[in-house]
Amino acid sequence: MDLGKFREILSSERERILEILKAEKENDVNTNDQWTEPKDPEDLANLTLSDDIRTKICEREYHTLREIEEALVRINSGKYGICEKCGKFIEEERLELIPWTRYCSACSKVYTKDR
Ligand SMILES: [Zn+2]
What we know:
The chain is mostly helical and about 120 residues long. Helices cover about 60% and strands about 0% of the residues.
């Protein structure tokens, strides 16, 4: 599997979502905090957004960003593309569609029905 390709896709998608979040932050007149781009998943976890901003941001974008961060960590640790539930390789066609997925198509039907 071409990990470099998926790393590139994930990185550009991450940039796109960060731009959306950044724009939301800049639009919020009640917030004077300096925007600092999160450098790693821990920074992202500590990222504090006011409730006001949080409600404005598309929850899905925020969720996807977290998934992307974790997928990038999995690429770095060599676990990318392996289903977290059954341990099998995730179909490459599926990764093309959802590069940050953590389950193979069979498991995703069972475990991500609330997405
Ligand atoms: Zn699976």
